[in-house]
Amino acid sequence: MTTRIKELRAKDNLTQIELAQKVGVRRETxxxxxxxxxxxxxxxxxxxxxxxxxxxxxxxxxx
Amino acid sequence: MKAKKFAIVKFTVAAFILGLMGFWIxxxxxxxNEFAYGTIGVMLLIVxxxxxxxxxxxxxxxxxxxxxxxxxxxxxxxxxxxxxxxxIYMWLIGLFALDMFSIxxxxxxxxVIAIGMMGMTLIxxxxxxYLSKVGIDDN
Lengths: 63, 139
Description:
heterodimer, A: mainly alpha, 434 Repressor (Amino-terminal Domain), two-stranded antiparallel sheet, 5 helices, 2 strands, 60% helix, B: 81% helix, Cro/C1-type_HTH (chain A)
Protein backbone atom coordinates (compact mmCIF):
# COMPACT_ATOMS: atom_id res chain seq x y z
CA MET A 1 0.00 0.00 0.00
CA THR A 2 1.25 3.48 -0.83
CA THR A 3 0.02 6.77 0.54
CA ARG A 4 -0.24 10.31 -0.74
CA ILE A 5 0.13 11.77 2.75
CA LYS A 6 3.45 13.49 2.06
CA GLU A 7 2.19 15.06 -1.16
CA LEU A 8 -1.10 16.20 0.39
CA ARG A 9 0.65 17.51 3.48
CA ALA A 10 2.99 19.62 1.35
CA LYS A 11 0.00 20.91 -0.64
CA ASP A 12 -1.79 21.97 2.57
CA ASN A 13 1.42 23.34 4.15
CA LEU A 14 1.11 20.95 7.07
CA THR A 15 4.09 19.68 9.04
CA GLN A 16 4.27 16.09 10.27
CA ILE A 17 3.73 17.31 13.85
CA GLU A 18 0.68 19.35 12.86
CA LEU A 19 -0.88 16.39 11.07
CA ALA A 20 -0.03 14.12 14.03
CA GLN A 21 -1.72 16.59 16.40
CA LYS A 22 -4.84 16.69 14.21
CA VAL A 23 -5.25 12.90 14.13
CA GLY A 24 -3.99 12.16 17.67
CA VAL A 25 -0.84 10.13 16.98
CA ARG A 26 2.91 10.59 17.44
CA ARG A 27 5.07 12.15 14.71
CA GLU A 28 6.84 8.80 14.21
CA THR A 29 3.55 7.23 13.14
CA UNK A 30 3.19 9.81 10.36
CA UNK A 31 6.83 9.14 9.34
CA UNK A 32 6.19 5.38 9.06
CA UNK A 33 2.91 5.99 7.19
CA UNK A 34 4.65 8.22 4.66
CA UNK A 35 7.40 5.64 4.16
CA UNK A 36 4.77 2.94 3.63
CA UNK A 37 6.10 0.98 6.60
CA UNK A 38 2.86 0.92 8.52
CA UNK A 39 -0.72 0.10 7.60
CA UNK A 40 -3.04 2.32 9.66
CA UNK A 41 -6.25 1.25 11.33
CA UNK A 42 -9.48 2.12 9.53
CA UNK A 43 -10.10 4.89 12.09
CA UNK A 44 -6.69 6.49 11.55
CA UNK A 45 -7.02 6.21 7.76
CA UNK A 46 -10.45 7.85 8.03
CA UNK A 47 -9.16 10.64 10.29
CA UNK A 48 -6.22 11.39 7.96
CA UNK A 49 -8.47 11.44 4.89
CA UNK A 50 -10.85 13.77 6.72
CA UNK A 51 -8.00 16.23 7.41
CA UNK A 52 -7.39 16.45 3.63
CA UNK A 53 -11.15 16.40 2.80
CA UNK A 54 -10.67 13.34 0.64
CA UNK A 55 -11.91 9.76 0.47
CA UNK A 56 -9.78 7.05 2.10
CA UNK A 57 -9.02 5.41 -1.25
CA UNK A 58 -7.74 8.73 -2.61
CA UNK A 59 -5.15 9.00 0.18
CA UNK A 60 -4.26 5.32 0.65
CA UNK A 61 -3.68 3.42 -2.56
CA UNK A 62 -3.77 -0.36 -2.61
CA UNK A 63 -1.40 -1.89 -5.17
CA MET B 1 -3.26 14.80 31.24
CA LYS B 2 -3.34 11.08 30.49
CA ALA B 3 0.16 11.33 29.04
CA LYS B 4 1.41 13.08 32.18
CA LYS B 5 -0.02 10.30 34.36
CA PHE B 6 1.56 7.76 32.02
CA ALA B 7 4.98 9.45 32.43
CA ILE B 8 4.56 9.77 36.21
CA VAL B 9 3.84 6.01 36.45
CA LYS B 10 7.00 5.31 34.46
CA PHE B 11 9.15 7.59 36.64
CA THR B 12 7.65 6.00 39.78
CA VAL B 13 8.53 2.51 38.53
CA ALA B 14 12.06 3.67 37.68
CA ALA B 15 12.44 5.25 41.15
CA PHE B 16 11.11 2.07 42.79
CA ILE B 17 13.64 -0.11 40.92
CA LEU B 18 16.47 2.30 41.77
CA GLY B 19 15.35 2.36 45.40
CA LEU B 20 15.29 -1.44 45.63
CA MET B 21 18.69 -1.62 43.96
CA GLY B 22 20.11 0.96 46.37
CA PHE B 23 18.66 -0.96 49.31
CA TRP B 24 20.26 -4.17 48.04
CA ILE B 25 23.66 -2.52 47.37
CA UNK B 26 23.86 -0.84 50.80
CA UNK B 27 22.54 -3.79 52.77
CA UNK B 28 24.42 -6.67 51.21
CA UNK B 29 27.20 -8.06 53.33
CA UNK B 30 28.79 -10.17 50.62
CA UNK B 31 31.40 -8.73 48.24
CA UNK B 32 30.15 -8.18 44.69
CA ASN B 33 31.00 -10.80 42.09
CA GLU B 34 30.66 -10.64 38.27
CA PHE B 35 27.02 -11.70 38.46
CA ALA B 36 26.19 -8.84 40.87
CA TYR B 37 27.85 -6.30 38.57
CA GLY B 38 26.01 -7.81 35.60
CA THR B 39 22.71 -7.53 37.48
CA ILE B 40 23.38 -3.87 38.32
CA GLY B 41 24.22 -3.21 34.66
CA VAL B 42 21.00 -4.84 33.42
CA MET B 43 18.90 -3.03 36.04
CA LEU B 44 20.44 0.33 35.07
CA LEU B 45 19.70 -0.45 31.42
CA ILE B 46 16.06 -1.19 32.27
CA VAL B 47 15.76 1.97 34.40
CA UNK B 48 17.40 3.98 31.61
CA UNK B 49 14.87 2.64 29.10
CA UNK B 50 11.93 3.42 31.40
CA UNK B 51 13.18 6.99 32.04
CA UNK B 52 13.82 7.50 28.31
CA UNK B 53 10.29 6.40 27.38
CA UNK B 54 8.86 8.58 30.19
CA UNK B 55 10.75 11.63 28.90
CA UNK B 56 9.57 10.88 25.33
CA UNK B 57 5.98 10.62 26.59
CA UNK B 58 6.28 14.00 28.31
CA UNK B 59 7.82 15.57 25.18
CA UNK B 60 5.00 14.17 23.03
CA UNK B 61 2.39 15.42 25.50
CA UNK B 62 4.01 18.87 25.53
CA UNK B 63 3.76 19.01 21.72
CA UNK B 64 0.09 18.02 21.91
CA UNK B 65 0.77 14.51 20.58
CA UNK B 66 -0.57 11.22 21.88
CA UNK B 67 2.37 9.20 23.33
CA UNK B 68 0.32 5.99 23.42
CA UNK B 69 -1.02 5.94 19.88
CA UNK B 70 -2.01 2.87 17.86
CA UNK B 71 1.47 2.28 16.41
CA UNK B 72 3.24 2.38 19.78
CA UNK B 73 0.64 -0.01 21.23
CA UNK B 74 1.11 -2.38 18.28
CA UNK B 75 4.91 -2.19 18.65
CA UNK B 76 4.65 -3.06 22.35
CA UNK B 77 2.30 -5.97 21.60
CA UNK B 78 4.48 -7.31 18.81
CA UNK B 79 7.66 -6.91 20.90
CA UNK B 80 5.99 -8.76 23.79
CA UNK B 81 4.83 -11.64 21.59
CA UNK B 82 8.20 -11.94 19.83
CA UNK B 83 10.09 -11.75 23.15
CA UNK B 84 7.85 -14.48 24.56
CA UNK B 85 8.48 -16.79 21.58
CA UNK B 86 12.25 -16.21 21.73
CA UNK B 87 12.22 -16.69 25.52
CA ILE B 88 10.71 -20.16 25.13
CA TYR B 89 13.72 -21.18 23.03
CA MET B 90 16.05 -19.42 25.47
CA TRP B 91 14.64 -21.42 28.41
CA LEU B 92 14.73 -24.64 26.36
CA ILE B 93 18.41 -24.15 25.50
CA GLY B 94 19.04 -23.10 29.11
CA LEU B 95 17.45 -26.29 30.42
CA PHE B 96 19.62 -28.42 28.15
CA ALA B 97 22.69 -26.45 29.26
CA LEU B 98 21.70 -26.82 32.91
CA ASP B 99 21.60 -30.59 32.51
CA MET B 100 25.39 -30.41 32.43
CA PHE B 101 25.49 -28.84 35.92
CA SER B 102 23.86 -29.95 39.11
CA ILE B 103 21.58 -27.45 40.85
CA UNK B 104 22.01 -28.59 44.44
CA UNK B 105 21.17 -25.40 46.30
CA UNK B 106 18.41 -22.79 46.44
CA UNK B 107 20.94 -20.06 45.62
CA UNK B 108 21.91 -21.78 42.37
CA UNK B 109 18.24 -22.13 41.43
CA UNK B 110 17.68 -18.43 42.22
CA UNK B 111 20.71 -17.58 40.05
CA VAL B 112 19.25 -19.49 37.09
CA ILE B 113 15.81 -17.86 37.47
CA ALA B 114 17.38 -14.38 37.82
CA ILE B 115 19.44 -14.84 34.64
CA GLY B 116 16.36 -16.09 32.78
CA MET B 117 14.22 -13.15 33.91
CA MET B 118 16.90 -10.61 33.03
CA GLY B 119 17.36 -12.32 29.68
CA MET B 120 13.64 -12.11 28.95
CA THR B 121 13.58 -8.41 29.90
CA LEU B 122 16.58 -7.62 27.72
CA ILE B 123 15.11 -9.52 24.76
CA UNK B 124 11.89 -7.51 25.10
CA UNK B 125 13.71 -4.17 25.39
CA UNK B 126 15.93 -4.80 22.36
CA UNK B 127 13.00 -5.95 20.20
CA UNK B 128 10.93 -2.96 21.38
CA UNK B 129 13.75 -0.55 20.48
CA TYR B 130 14.37 -2.28 17.13
CA LEU B 131 10.69 -2.18 16.13
CA SER B 132 10.35 1.47 17.13
CA LYS B 133 13.25 2.25 14.76
CA VAL B 134 12.14 0.14 11.76
CA GLY B 135 8.35 0.13 12.26
CA ILE B 136 5.92 -2.72 11.74
CA ASP B 137 5.63 -4.08 8.26
CA ASP B 138 2.25 -5.77 8.69
CA ASN B 139 1.30 -6.14 5.07
